[in-house]
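Entry type: protein chain
Record version: 2
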Amino acid sequence: MYELIKKDGLAKRGRLHTVHGVIETPVFMNVGTAAAIKGAVSTEDLQGIKTQVELSNTYHLHVRPGDEVIKKLGGLHKFMVWDKPILTDSGGFQVFSLAGLRKIKEEGVYFNSHIDGKKIFMGPEESMQIQSNLGSTIAMAFDECPSSVADREYMENSVARTTRWLERCKKEMNRLNSLEDTINQHQLLFGINQGGVYEDIRVQHAKDIAKLDLDGYAIGGLAVGETHEEMYRILDAVVPHLPENKPTYLMGVGTPANILEAVDRGVDFFDCVYPSRNGRHGHVYTNQGKLNLFNAKYELDMSPIEEGCQCPACRHYSRAYIRHLLKAKEMLGMRLCVLHNLYFYNTMMEEIRAAIEAGNYKEYKEAKLAGMNAGKK
């Protein structure tokens, strides 16, 4: 159940009650594709850096170690020793990123595994079955994520198919949740809005899927090559047509600035690989902008990544030491940067929630953006 606590303009402060605990929104979900955050980050670490939701990938876990294996081991929560909510994406985006290896039909998608080339079929029912085996808190509907530059005719046909697939997902999810041997009989289902940068297709699709009364609604197919301005234009058009009393999830987004702008437009769920990917390359986020710790100017810098930050890296280590670790290709350097970045994102979400509750979100957003932009000069 989703509870809307406060609105400040379009910004929503909510609370999603799940079988694995309460999710305070707006929330940033920490991406652990193969049931682990890249950068040697343990589940215990996640508890210490304010992680609310861990996100894992259906496709990757299906090909390795196999969703049937994870089910035999008691589900994803037991497997990775995590007792809080987990969201699993449907595998749709990964399947469609394998453009040279797949064939789309009405029943689903035929494709080859990127690991061993083995032939795999995945449709709405298979995606729901895999996610049910994983036992995640929130399952994502199986959709097509078309290219943002697809022509109108292709986009209309693709979106219509995604709607038909969504109806099949809902039916299969209801069936799976009624079975006795299902790990999580309270698994939630989020549908996905598509339509590229065509406002009218997006809006009509939002209206169509809103009628299905799902547990939440995601906006997919953005942050795949269009400009930030185009993304914000689509959000302005689409979000008002998604149910306000359900979570709104912007998939795969993004930078701190993207998140701040999207919250202002009514989005309250986010995920992105940026904080962990950038951290593994020595790029760290601060309230004064992003730093590249490989830069020579940090060689003798004994200050933490950010003064006052309470993350495991900043509480103990200097920029100089972390730079040394990165240059020496020591895994610890990568790990500390990832921990700092995830802590920064999770802390920013706390600040966002507090600002919406206080009714001063716009002022908070402007001050936060000004601080981060000042560091770029």
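Comment: DSSP finds 15 helices and 16 strands in the chain.
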